[in-house]
Amino acid sequence: MIDLHTHTLNSDGELIPAELWRRAQVKGYRYLGITDHVDASNFEEVFRRVRTAAASLNRGEPPVIIPGLEFTHIPPGQIGELVRRARGLGVPLIVVHGETLVEPVAPGTNRAALEADETARAMLRDHEAAWNLGRRESLAEADAKAEALATTLQRMEAMRLSPVRQGEIADAR
Fold first, then answer.
1. Whole-angstrom Cα distance, residue 143 to residue 127?
2. How far apart are CA 79 and CA 57, in angstroms?
């Protein structure tokens, strides 16, 4: 089982990363994406924290933490630039808080998110449908995507360009 959209105390979650990891471990998760809510003011700091937690906890036992971000309430015209900056920092998992009927997310956010990242596409978080990868049978392909992402992270680590090494920002990506 996987969940690529979770939050910690770094945004609106209730748990520190280690406790979130442990609870996911007990439930049998193989991959856990930590994607705390961020905007232009805090995404670099939050990613450093999540990456440090991943480096501490990714020691061979599942679940593998995939450090990421959820860009939230970003003006659509700024999404592409923030995604590029985040990719430049080595952020492997990006979620964008999308438009719904119940939240005042700016019109055009969904399209901007889909156009923001040509290689991996910023994942669009649909809060109205309330889906999490790994929790719906219709998202069976999510497991293969998580496997591919984990393989990429392992290759990066082997090349010593890991975004999670020693809590420092990777020099290159």
1. 20
2. 30
Query: Helices (DSSP H) in 11-128: which residue ranges?
Result: 17-26, 43-57, 76-88, 109-116
pTM: 0.72
pLDDT digits (tens, 9 = 90+) for 85-112: 999 999 999 999 989 888 899 999 988 9
Structure tokens at 55: 């480096």
- Per residue in 98-135, is it b (16+ CB within 10 Å) or e — as a string? bbbeeeebeeebbebbeebbeebebbbbeeeeeeebbe
The structure tokens listed for 22 are 């442990």
Q: Which of 31, 91, 33 is nearest to 61 (CA)?
A: 31
Nearest of 23, 161, 139, 158 to residue 90 by alpha carbon: 161
- 137-156 pLDDT tens trace: 334 455 566 666 666 655 55
Neighbour tally for 149: CB within 10 Å:
20
